[in-house]
Amino acid sequence: MSLSLQAGGTSSRALPNASTQANALMANQATTRPITTGTSVLGIKYKNGVMLAADTLCSYGSLAKYKNAKRLLNINSRTLIGASGEYSDLQSISDLLKANALADRCTSDSLYEEDNNEECAKEVWSYLRAVMYNRRNKMNPLWNDVVVAGFKQNTDGTTSDTPFLGVVDKIGTAYEDDILATGFGGYIALPLMREKYRPDMEEGEARALLEDCLRILFYRDCRALNRVQIAKVTKEGGVLVSDPYELDTFWDFKEFVTPKGAMGTDGGW
């Protein structure tokens, strides 16, 4: 509400009319920059499925504000997503995908849940690619990098034996791989995953590798937390998302203890 000066030096508040109120409401309906954000999401294929991992921290700028923000979400019984970036945009994506899943069930030819033809992971990934590119062209992007995990689909609608892991960024760039990392994990975790990855990894080995990467990210990324979630998709068991739990950490490394500005050091990391 603006102030207007009257004759004699007094001031009074100028009453807004309907048009100025409407303009104020319509001035900005887009997320112009990420505010409440989550950091890395890691993904890996293993022998019998696909696994994702992420911490539960949402940072408000540089403030570690929300420590129980779950960023691994099941879309249907065979598709899982995880996202870094703006958390409100992730909620919008989740609502959109779940509305599509509900519409598919409501318009299905069968009333029985086991006969419903749910979207497979690759279809969800392709749909998100179009959504992200469309929003980017409208100069109103969804500020997320989204990892999609699950299984591909056979021509008859049944679940394939082929696992799927893909990522879509905020401008619609999309690709598939056996290992993926978003955010700061693309710089720190991805090289470690490339070194240790094997296509025939057991579930326990894949989980241990992801936990090691999350632990290192907690050491090196100031927007990361040691409270994490692990989620997996298997053909037999469908989607399973763990409850948040805390990783054990170790802070007695020599590099952590030695003062960085001490004599005989270069003063850096």
Low-confidence regions: 1-14
Secondary-structure element series: EEHEEEEEEEHHEEEEHHEEEH
Structural class: alpha+beta
Shape: globular
Query: If you compute it from the alpha carbons, what radius of gyration comes out, rounded to the nearest whole angstrom?
Result: 23 Å
Task: Give the N-to-C terminal Cα separation.
Answer: 50 Å
User: What percentage of residues falls in helices of 4 or more residues?
Assistant: 25-40%
Quick check: average pLDDT?
A: 85
Largest sheet: 8 strands, antiparallel
Tell me the β content: 25-35%
Tally of contiguous helical segments: 6
Extended strand count: 16
Which helices and strands, and how do they pair?
Elements lengths: L2 E3 L5 E3 L4 H9 L9 E3 L2 E6 L2 E7 L2 E3 L2 E4 L5 E5 L2 E8 H20 L14 H17 L6 E10 L5 E10 L5 E3 L2 E3 L3 H12 L6 H18 L6 E8 L3 E4 L3 E2 L7 H4 L12
Antiparallel strand pairs: 1-2, 3-6, 3-9, 4-5, 4-13, 5-14, 6-7, 8-9, 9-10, 10-11, 11-12, 14-15, 14-16
Helix pairs in contact: 4-5
Key terms:
16 strands, six-stranded antiparallel beta sheet, 269 residues, alpha+beta, eight-stranded antiparallel beta sheet, globular, 30% helix
What does it look like?
With 269 residues, the chain is of the alpha+beta class. Helices cover 30% and strands 30% of the residues. It contains 6 helices and 16 strands. Strands 3, 6, 7, 8, 9, 10, 11 and 12 form an 8-stranded antiparallel beta sheet that branches. Strands 4, 5, 13, 14, 15 and 16 form a 6-stranded antiparallel beta sheet that branches. β8 and β9 form a beta hairpin. The radius of gyration is 23 Å and the shape is globular. The N and C termini lie far apart (50 Å).
